[in-house]
C-alpha cells in the first residue's frame, strides 16, 4: 500500500485488524500509569487573566501492593 492511500480508500478488503483495541490500550495504560499535565492561559492583549493548571496521575490500584502512606489507610 502506498503512502498516499488511506485504509478506507483501499479497494481491497483488509485482512486483519488495524491498531490496538481500546480495552487492550486502557489495560496497558492503567498497568503502567500515565501522567497528564497541562497549562491553559487566557489572555487579552498579551495580559494574562486566567491560568489553569492540570496535573493528574492515572494508574490502577492493587490490594496486593501495600499503600505508600505511613498508616496504610485509604486516601
Q: Main beta sheet: strand number and arrangement? A: 2 strands, antiparallel
What share of residues is helical?
Answer: 10-25%
Low-confidence stretches: none
Query: In which order are the strands of the major sheet placed?
Result: 1-2
Terminal CA distance: 52 Å
Mean pLDDT: 75
Question: Radius of gyration, Cα only, in angstroms?
Answer: 22 Å
Please indicate the percent range of residues in DSSP E strands (runs of 2 or more). Answer: 25-35%
- Give the number of helices: 1
Q: How would you classify the helix and strand content by structural class?
A: alpha+beta
Molecular shape: flat
Write down the secondary-structure element order: HEE
- Total DSSP E strands: 2
Structure in words:
By secondary structure, the protein is an alpha+beta fold. It has one helix at 22-32; strands spanning 34-44, 47-58. Strands 1-2 form a two-stranded antiparallel ribbon. It is flat and about 55 Å long.
Short synopsis of the structure:
By secondary structure, the chain is α+β, with helices and mostly antiparallel strands.
